[in-house]
Automatic annotation (TrEMBL):
UniProt family annotation: Belongs to the DMRL synthase family.
Alphabetized CDD domains for the sequence: Riboflavin_synthase_archaeal
Highest taxon of the lineage: Bacteria
Pfam families xref list: DMRL_synthase
Designated name of the protein: Riboflavin synthase
Lineage: Bacteria, Bacillati, Actinomycetota, Acidimicrobiia, Acidimicrobiales
Species per Swiss-Prot/TrEMBL record: Aciditerrimonas ferrireducens
Recorded name of the encoding gene: ribC
């Protein structure tokens, strides 16, 4: 059975890992075609190695990595470092790791930020499933201004008749 990884952090102020797991549970083939492995680490700079371990030691075919950069300038610097680590883990393992970061500075209202967390986590969990099993779902959306966390921006031009 294939394995899809979900890694999240204690630092985040919303349980994005649970949202990603629940979304994957509702994808066709959960429990028969694929199973979900979930890990939680202290913060987003620990995501890279956790994802690489899931891929190389547990055989995950794709991983969703969820984190939250805090408000302080140092948090934004660390977010860049964390992203570099995740990109390196992808290249070293030749395996997709979808980075799902929700920055605390994206919304002032906690309820609105929580909604961004849910939307972005679920949409990227679905993207991970599609990348593995239904890649045509992404191709058909190419250039359509698809967004996670907020409503789609849509294409620049209206569709040609
Ligand atoms: C400054 C800082 N900011 C964040 C953050 O905004 N979000 C986050 O998830 N983690 C942060 N951390 C902690 C690191 O990611 C990591 O957990 C520790 O350095 C231990 O490896 C640190 C150290």
């Amino acid at each position: 059975m294939d394995r899809i990884g979900v890694v999240d952090t204690m630092f985040a102020r919303y349980d994005m890992g649970a949202e990603a797991v629940d979304e994957l549970r509702h994808c066709p083939g959960h429990g028969t075609r694929f199973e979900i492995l979930r890990r939680t680490v202290p913060g987003f700079k620990d995501l890279g190695v956790a994802c690489k371990k899931l891929i190389q030691e547990e055989g995950c075919r794709i991983v969703v990595a969820l984190g939250m950069p805090g408000r302080a300038p140092i948090d934004q610097v660390c977010a860049h470092e964390a992203s570099q680590g995740i990109m390196l883990a992808q290249l070293l393992t030749n395996t997709h790791i979808l980075e799902v970061f929700v920055h605390e500075t994206e919304e002032e209202d906690p309820a609105k930020l929580a909604a961004v967390c849910v939307d972005r986590a679920r949409k990227h969990a679905r993207n991970a499933y599609w990348l593995l099993y239904e890649p045509e779902q992404l191709t058909r959306r190419a250039g359509q201004g698809v967004r996670q966390g907020y409503t789609d921006a849509g294409p620049l031009l209206p569709p040609a008749d």
